[in-house]
């Protein structure tokens, strides 16, 4: 029953919107007098819709069971607690996963570190084999064991190593003509480049005297032009000085 009461609310909202739409349409399409009448009718329709909505809401409110709201609240709170617990568990799982990865990485790196440390210690003690019979025998057994293990390893991997060597031999044989062609092309390019450089050097050698002569000629012309300008300046100064002397000679008393 409570659900049916709540379900009536959207229909009442639609009725209220329809009343407002009727008022807007009537006001837009009618004349002045007709618009006023249509407006009053639409207002009454709107008021009736509001009253119907109010009654239905009050009726629906009476039909809603308070225990239902409490149950809904409890269900929401329970869902939130479950979500928080899941997030907390996910975070803990992520932390444990990171710690596990670090532990695994440490375990993976431990054997190589131990082997490197042991080899360093043995290498530091190898010089003592000449002073101790037991030390010398221990190193001899170690070298013999390594030799035996190398033989066993070679026998165990000889088939795959042979296949890899044959494949590499075939690849090099296939690439040999290609590499030869590339080498010839690069050699030809380098040869033409060297010849071009030699031609450029010859051109520079031919042009260099001409350029030097032109530069010397320009320097000579500039020096002569500077000398002429200096001579003209000195001549002008001499003329000015001569004019001054003539002026003083003409007016010995300073023009008084």
Question: Describe it for me?
Answer:
By secondary structure, this protein is mainly α. It has a domain at 2-95. It is built from 4 helices and no strands. It has helices spanning 2-29, 32-63, 66-125, 133-250. Helix 1 runs antiparallel to helix 2 (32-63). The chain is extended, with a radius of gyration of 56 Å.
Task: Write a compact overview of the structure shown.
By secondary structure, the chain is mainly alpha-helical. The protein has a domain at 2-95. It is built from 4 helices and no strands.
What's the topology here?
Blueprint: H1 2-29, H2 32-63, H3 66-125, H4 133-250
Helix pairs in contact: 1-2
* Radius of gyration, in angstroms, nearest whole number: 56 Å
Low-confidence stretches: 1-9, 28-32, 59-64
Measured as a percent range, the helix fraction is: over 70%
The total of helices stands at 4
Query: N-to-C terminal Cα separation, in Å?
Result: 136 Å
The proportion of strand residues reads under 5%
Number of strands: 0
Please describe the biggest sheet, giving its number of strands, its sense, and whether it closes into a barrel: none
Structural class assignment: mainly alpha
Order of helices and strands: HHHH
Integer average pLDDT = 75
Query: Could you say which overall geometry the principal axes of the C-alpha atoms support?
Result: extended
């Amino acid at each position: 029953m409570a659900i049916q009461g709540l379900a009536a609310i959207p229909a009442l909202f639609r009725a209220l919107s329809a009343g407002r739409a009727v008022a807007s349409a009537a006001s837009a399409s009618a004349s002045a007098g007709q618009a006023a009448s249509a407006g009053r009718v639409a207002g009454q329709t709107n008021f009736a819709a509001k009253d119907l909505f109010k009654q239905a809401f009050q009726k629906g409110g009476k039909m809603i069971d308070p225990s239902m709201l409490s149950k809904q609240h409890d269900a929401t709170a329970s869902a939130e607690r479950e979500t928080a617990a899941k997030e907390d568990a996910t975070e803990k799982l992520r932390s444990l996963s990171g710690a596990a990865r670090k532990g695994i990485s440490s375990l993976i790196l431990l054997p190589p570190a131990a082997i490197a440390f042991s080899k360093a210690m043995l290498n530091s003690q190898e010089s003592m084999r000449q002073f101790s019979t037991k030390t010398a025998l221990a190193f001899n057994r170690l070298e013999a064991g390594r030799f035996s293990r190398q033989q066993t390893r070679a026998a165990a991997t000889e088939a795959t190593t042979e296949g890899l060597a044959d494949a590499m031999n075939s690849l090099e044989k296939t690439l040999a003509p290609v590499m030869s062609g590339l080498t010839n092309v690069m050699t030809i390019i380098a040869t033409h480049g060297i010849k071009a450089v030699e031609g450029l050097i010859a051109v520079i050698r031919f042009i260099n005297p001409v350029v030097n002569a032109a530069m010397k000629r320009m320097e000579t012309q500039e020096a002569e032009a500077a000398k002429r300008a200096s001579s003209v300046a000195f001549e002008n100064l001499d003329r000015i000085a001569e004019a001054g002397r003539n002026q003083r000679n003409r007016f010995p008393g300073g023009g008084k």
